[in-house]
Each structure stands twice: as C-alpha cells, then as structure tokens.
Design brief:
Layout (H helix, E strand, L loop, with lengths): L10 E16 L5 E18 L25 E19 L2 E12 L2 E2 L4 H13 L8 E2 L2 E14 L4 E13 L7
Antiparallel strand pairs: 1-2, 2-3, 3-4, 4-7, 5-6, 7-8
C-alpha cells in the first residue's frame, strides 16, 4: 500500500515481589476496639527488549521507533511502599456499631514496552500534535482512603441499616489508554 505500517514490540518482563504484614487489635472496653495493620511491599521489576535491531523494509526506519537512536537498553526499578491501616469501632449496644478506618494502598509501578514513548511521539505527537504523554517507565500508584459509618438494626432485627461515607485520594493513578 502507499502507507504501510510495521511495528514490533517484544519485551521480557521479570518481577520479584516481597511483602511483610502484621496486625494488632486493642479492646480497652466491651464497646471500643482499635486496630492497627502494617504492610510493607517491595517489587523489583526488570524489562529488556527482545526486538532485534532491524529496519522496516518499506521506510528504512527502525522497526521499533525506540531504536531510532540506538539499541534499547534493559531497565530495572524497585517500587516500595509502607501501607498502614487504622480501624476504630464503637459499639454502644448490640444493635449499633459506629466505625471509622483509614489506610494507604499501593499499586506497583512498572514498564511499558520499550519504545512506546518514541512510538507515540513519532506517530501521534509529532504527526497530528495529539499531546499524549507516555513514558517507557511508569510510577507507582498510591491511595489514601478514609471511611466512616454506622451499622445497626431496629424492630427486633427486622430492619437493618448501614450508612457509610468514603473519601479516597489517588496519586499517580494508572490507566490504560489505547
């Protein structure tokens, strides 16, 4: 055709994951309970391109745009996160529970296929000025979540209720765009 398209992305991904977790609960009275949980994650990630240094037979350009300035070098990174969680519960009667909790969540960072950033820049940003930002390595995602609520029952247990409010703040949210 007049506008052929060739592309080759092939990477070898390797991940080792380590985690430690512990929790404790304290009950100073029959009505009040407090809990603390701690988790620590480490994710060691590696990525290396399996794409040979080859040129597109139609354009003479590298078959992976990321190779335009030389071979793709292996990448590695470690993503670590401490994740506490605090829980409080107050039960003034066996028919009512008032609670709150807060915690930190984590999703590891990692690698897109090597050359992805060069591909987007060459074919979308430079060609049609799309303004799409992508990196071959992406950051870890962190969240801080808070919940407060009340649960209970009325009419000898024939009516139950659960009212809760949530708030979550996410930093460096990961999403897939194709």
């Amino acid at each position: 055709t007049a506008n052929p398209t060739s592309l080759l992305l092939a990477d070898d991904f390797d991940t080792n994951v380590y985690a430690v977790f512990g929790s404790a609960e304290y009950k100073p009275s029959e009505q009040f309970t407090a809990g603390l949980a701690l988790r620590y994650d480490i994710e060691d990630r590696k990525s290396s391109s399996l794409v040979p240094t080859a040129t597109d037979p139609f354009t003479g350009s590298p078959i992976n745009p990321g190779q335009a300035f030389g071979a793709l070098t292996p990448k590695s990174a470690s993503f670590k996160q401490f994740q506490p969680k605090v829980t409080l519960s107050y039960t003034p009667s066996d028919k009512l529970n008032i609670y709150a909790n807060w915690g930190i969540g984590f999703k590891s960072g990692g690698f897109n296929n090597q050359g992805s950033a060069a591909l987007i820049n060459a074919n979308f940003n430079h060609f049609i000025n799309a303004g799409v930002t992508i990196n071959d390595q992406y950051r870890k995602e962190r969240s801080s979540a808070f919940e407060v609520g009340v649960k209970g029952s009325l009419l000898d247990g024939r009516l139950t209720f659960d009212l809760a409010g949530y708030y979550t703040r996410i930093t460096d949210m990961q999403f897939f765009e194709f």
